[in-house]
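Here we describe the complex-level prediction in full. Unlike the single-chain runs in Section 2.1, the three entities below were treated as one system.
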Amino acid sequence: MSEHRLKTSLGRAFGAAPTPARRAARWLDRNLGGSSILREELRHIFPDSWAFFLGEIALYCFIVLVATGIFLALFFHASQAVVIYHGSYHPLSGVPMSDAYSSVLDLSWNVRAGLLIRQVHHWAALVFVAALIIHLMRMFFTGAYRRPRRINWLIGLSLLLLVGFNGLMGYSLPDDLLSGTGLRIAFSITESIPFIGPTMATVLFGGDFPTTGIIARIYPVHIFLLPAAIAGLLGAHLGLLWLQRHTEFPGPGRDDRTMVGSPMVPQYALRTTGYFLLLAGVITAFGAWLQINPVWLYGPFRATDATTSAQPDWYMGWLEGAVRMFPGWDIQIGGFLLPAIFWPAVVLPGLIFTPLFLWPWLDSLALRDNRFVNVLQYPSQRPGRMAVGAGFFTFLTVLLVGGGDDVFASAFGWSLPVLLRALQILVIVLPPLVAALTYAIARRRSERWLVS
Amino acid sequence: MSDDARQTHAAPAPSGENGAPGGHGPRGPGWVPTWPATVGLVVTLVASVGFAVSFIRDASTQWLGGFLAAALLGIGLALAYWGRDLAGDEVISGPYPVPHEDAEGRAALGDALDQSVQVITRRHFLTKMLVFAGGVFVLSQVVLLGALGPRPKNSLRTTSWRAGSRLVTFDGVPVTRDTLAAGTFLVAFPEGHLDSADSQITLLRIGADPHFKTLAGRESWSPEGYVAYSRVCTHAGCPVAQYEDQAKVLVCPCHQSTFDLMNGAQPVAGPAGRPLPQLPLAIDAQGNLTAQSDFTVPVGPGFWDEG
Amino acid sequence: MAPPGPGADIFAANCSGCHGAAGQGGVAVPSLPFPPPPLAPAGFASLVEPMVRQGGIQMPSFARQLTDAQIQQVAQYVAQQIADPAARTANTAYGGQIFRLYCAGCHSTTGRGGAMVRGRNAPDISQYPAAEALAAMILGRGNMPVFAGHALDVRQQTSVALYVDVLVQAPSPGGAGLGYLGPVPEGAVGAGALLILIFIAVWLAWKSRKAVP
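The structure predicted for the assembly as a whole is:
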């Protein structure tokens, strides 16, 4: 028995010296009770693999976003009242603009640390969605969505949708030229829905585009409604995770009933706190040295102004690409019109997300396997799933590239029509090709797996 | 889960507390240096002061953010290293919670729930009324959506152009028959509606270009070689702002819908499915360009009951 | 005619050969793709100077032939005596409004250029002195139509050039500009941030993985 252990047991036997931690424990028990549960949870097991940090990246980005968002909210004016700008950024001096845009200029040029916080907020948002998607891919390819974690898969996907949508709202708030262009397209997409579209668009926007009240409407959605929903779902996501515990990769001593890992206190707690601070530091460094969304160069939104290289933030890029690549098949039905944009912008997202939501059930139906599992699979253990996933993400990646086709053409001196046609072919040809190739490789690997 | 179910596979590695590593004990085989954590904390100490000073001195975003990032990275590194290398490799194992295979408990829960439900459903009429009234109540709240905005009425079909509206530039200067030479263009608006998004037009002077096709029924729409098309894209509504002079096409910078100016602004490439509507033009007695009427079809992106 | 002075002499000796004695513009020469443009909208010495010093797409640099003082003198002379007086009423912010209406569709709001569907891609105008924008507006360039005299008067052309000068200098208080190409490079760089974070996670988990019993 080590000296440390000895000291601890002696302490227990003869009444512990009242250290601050012991006093805190006593206070907790007197005021809240439940010390035995708490004591057990101090030893909550956390798995030791980098793959389990992907979800934490997302969680910590959310914390950074809330913290920086509170700062930004103190300076942003959610109003489209027209003001004449006379602030520090002279190239816009005397230009009529919305109060919202003007307040973002002031925030960027006059408020101390304002630009830093704005840039950190934006970078954190980009990393947030990226982390959610990588996290989702990890869940998918390792089979972490299987019973008993199917409900949490649904919660996670809902989080992805809400976070992506809230990112779009945040992109729209500064009321610069890109913001307004995005809203213009959102209005047009809503308008294209059969029967209810036109009414839905004018009701949501408060009239025909451009309306003067849309920023004021988006603002509470962006800073309250969606963050509250995200926080709630996040709580449920983590609560379920806590109850069910993490999954684990196969290994000695591990099975569906036994978990191996580090205790929460002190090792894991130190590591994850350190990781949160490292993440905040990395994103702050990006915000300090890499300029993002320089709205003063874009100018205020006016419905007559337009710019090339007009893209949404990257996580909407697949949708932008689909809208660019889908041919102009407007369909006239009697006295009615089904605009082409309806297919890539409304139907396609449904086709992408519905199977994702249903995946855990489709998977267990297809395999007739509904077991309760805690041990993960390696991706190549399931060649079929790996092929489907590889094809799916290839499809989305081609769409994403299509969303920036004009920027690539311009930056690399390519011909845009040629690039567009190539992408239109690739988006159909490449996913099945990648899927087939993945299947063949994974099949060979899994056979070797079975043999060994 | 009880504590006994867990086994500790590895004793806590000796850390500073019990003498061995921590920087002041003998450097045995398991010795781990503490200096990385110390350096991290020193960085945080210095950078925090740097952050406050650069804020007070209103330094650039790069200094301010650089110090903040360094402060966060320093303490983050210290804690991460602490947890990874200094706190020991304690690996523990324990049971996963397994769903209750205890059929008795599940049945008891089912019975209890069923009894509670029966207390309510015993009152058949009341139950039905409850469902009915509750449903109607929830549905009635949908009317609140009406507060958000008007139904579209005619706003999607009409613009600010009227018969006799004079064409003006973005500055409000009237466009006359002499404003454009053949082969040039400008953006025009109806007089008094410079901010009208759906009324913006691309006005170009074709002159006597033999390649220009006048569509049937539009013979009188282009006096003296002036032609006007809506500048709102029929795909997603962006201004069709790219004018390619040699190819005589208008291209939308949002999704690259391409419209042939020489042939009724028909879509020839990209995702738009319908041509840009043409505005019938006239020239009044003073030589000003005017509109003969509003557009004859709705401008901008398509919608369901447009047809 | 313009009054004599050092600027006038420098102009007569170096500029009038192409741009005309009164800056009215020259005729096309077979060796030049574009004729030398008239100097009517060159109402600000700050627009003329960089052009004389660095040269443009076809105009040569005069940094070797002329001293700094001479360049300043001739720039003053062009702005004060040669350019149309209307040009001097131009305004940067007004130019920005026109830029976003007429120019940003092809060259983008940041002036970094953009892809075209039928012709050559629109160039990055921040690589040239802002006065080059005046030549393009006056003469048109390939797929770019003529704006001067029809869509835009002299004051408006000069205003656009003043605003282009802002874009050439590209105020960048937020750090590296990432090419000023908007959300596409931002997304790619954001993926870099995620990679760094994953790398840190791998480092953090490495030791513990080794410790598996």
